[in-house]
Design a protein that fits this description.
about 130 residues; mainly alpha; 3-stranded mixed β-sheet; GrdX-like; GrdX protein
Length: about 130
């Protein structure tokens, strides 16, 4: 099952620019981190499954505005494990964001966060393509 079919959901232009001609991508440029999680939750309700964890990496949801998540292209019945993970991730992200809002970072720092998010999803995609 090499090259598992996936949809990439992101608000990160670096991810969009690298993958938009190579795979299905939903680029949500003006969406917040929490908006991305909620969008993915809606896709899970439609029958998609999570392929990457919504809280991957060591950067907290209240530190970065960027998030990229991979889901399955195939729709089946509601995957309760994916639903549980995304719901728990939304709760955790809200808790952190409510406690301390994401700062108004300089463009240089935002570029660093874009790169971190890009490397996380890039590594995940390479692993999925290699081992699936």
């Amino acid at each position: 099952m090499k090259n598992l079919k996936k949809i990439i959901i992101t608000n990160n232009v670096l991810v969009h620019d690298k993958y938009n001609k190579k795979m299905d991508i939903i680029y949500l440029e003006n969406y917040s981190y929490l908006d991305i999680l909620k969008f993915v939750r809606d896709k899970i309700h439609q029958g998609h499954k999570l392929l990457t964890h919504p809280l991957s990496g060591s950067v907290k949801p209240n530190e970065t505005p960027f998030k990229t998540i991979a889901i399955s292209t195939d729709k089946g019945k509601l995957d309760l494990e994916s639903l549980s993970i995304i719901e728990d991730s939304i709760v955790a992200a809200k808790k952190l964001i409510d406690c301390k809002k994401t700062p108004k970072w300089t463009e240089e720092i935002l570029d660093d966060f874009r790169v971190i998010d890009f490397h996380l999803i890039n590594g995940a995609i390479e692993s999925m393509d290699q081992f699936n």
